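Students often ask why we bother encoding 3D structure as a string. The short answer is that it lets us treat folding as translation between two languages. Here is a chain of 88 residues written in the first language.
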Amino acid sequence: MVSIVICDPSQTYRHLGIYSVLFSMCLYVLIRRRTTIHWILPVLTIVMFSIATADISYSVYLHFQYALKGTLTFHAMRPKYWFFVTNK
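And here it is in the second language, the structure alphabet:
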């Protein structure tokens, strides 16, 4: 039997807090600069933050829906790999 490890939900929430602070700072710097802003940078920042948030949300869902019951399968984990590859 293959054992799949998912991080602790409290650690997941910590990551979401760190992502939120970094996202806010990044958008602040991109928007508040006195130079002309390239529209692609804020858009990509928002897209990356959205993917990271979806990844964390799905991790919490997996933890409470499957891992605590002991029914977590590779098929349920598949979107986690897509999030990882997309966001890296």
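Translate back mentally: DSSP finds three helices and no strands in the chain. Keep this in mind for the problem set.
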